[in-house]
Write a structure and sequence with these properties.
By secondary structure, the protein is of the alpha+beta class. The protein is built from 3 helices and 15 strands. It folds into 2 domains: 41 residues; 211 residues, Umud Fragment, subunit A (Ribbon). The strands form 3 sheets. Strands 1, 2, 3, 4, 12, 13, 14 and 15 form an 8-stranded antiparallel β-sheet that branches. The protein has a 4-stranded antiparallel β-sheet with strand order 7-6-5-11, with no helix packed on it. The protein has a 3-stranded antiparallel β-sheet with strand order 8-9-10, with no helix packed on it.
């Protein structure tokens, strides 16, 4: 009888012994490792902090960026460990892609702009018109953009549809075609580098400003913007203002080819 009780106790202990995936250790590792792997190799969220990409992206948009679109560099990983140089599994981006990259003059800072110049291209802006390899891009004026984020709420800004050489179209804002960045010299994009511009042409610090952005090395690319998953005109931490600030019409808005 006593032997049966001992055997029964041992059987109960064996049944009650937790498997590894049922332990707190596994849960903690899962909660730490899986998000790091996803953010490093698949997708990472990105918050739009400025209006340089209006009207395509608005302040308060939260987007997903695909990390695998152009392969991986050291900047693909948290803390940018210096484990290799250049890129692996590299695929060259396409003109017109909206891309998150590390600022060449300060690689701790992420920027998001539209790719307009590929290696070897000659890029210039004259009278607010983008010129690629000697050809002035076609623009079509459409209805004005109502900017509710300016100091003058509801201010109207001139909006155009710009067509890239490959036929891809996107919207831009250019309220003052004689602004400071609307007249530039010719920039020849070096091999292994790219030229970026914001869609809000009068209010974007981009590759036209050589002292702060300039040509962006391929190694600095983080990934391609894919979709707006949440959009709010107020801070996401001000939960009491969610109902008045949420932009449901922008939820899951794709940012790919048109």
């Amino acid at each position: 009888m006593i032997e049966d009780d001992i055997n029964k106790t041992e059987e109960q202990v064996a049944r009650e012994k937790l498997r590894f995936y049922e332990t707190w250790t596994f849960l903690i590792l899962f909660c730490i490792c899986v998000p790091i792997l996803i953010r490093s190799f698949l997708y990472t969220p990105f918050h739009i902090p400025s209006g340089s990409m209006k009207p395509t992206l608005l302040v308060g948009d939260y987007i997903f960026v695909s990390k695998f679109s152009y392969g991986y560099s050291k900047y693909s990983f948290p803390l940018a460990p210096n484990i290799f140089s250049g890129r692996i599994f590299y695929e060259e981006p396409k003109r017109g892609d909206i891309i998150v990259f590390r600022l060449p003059t300060d690689t701790k800072i992420d920027y998001i702009k539209r790719l307009v110049g590929l290696p070897g291209d000659r890029i210039q802006v004259r009278g607010g018109k983008l010129i690629i390899n000697g050809d002035i891009l076609k623009t079509e004026k459409i209805e004005d953009f109502k900017d509710d984020e300016m100091s003058e709420a509801g201010r109207l800004i001139t909006r155009y549809i710009e067509t890239l050489p490959e036929g891809k179209k996107h919207q831009i804002l250019d309220d003052n075609p004689r602004g400071g960045l609307d007249e530039t010299p010719v920039f020849t994009v070096p091999e292994g580098h790219f030229f970026f511009m914001g869609d809000n042409r009068d209010n974007s610090q981009d590759s036209r400003v050589m002292s702060s952005v300039g040509f962006v090395p391929a190694e600095n690319l983080i990934g391609r913007a894919e979709v707006v998953f949440v959009s709010m005109s107020d801070s996401i931490w001000r939960f009491w203002a969610w109902f008045s600030s949420i932009r449901t019409e922008r939820f899951f808005m794709p940012l790919g080819d048109k």
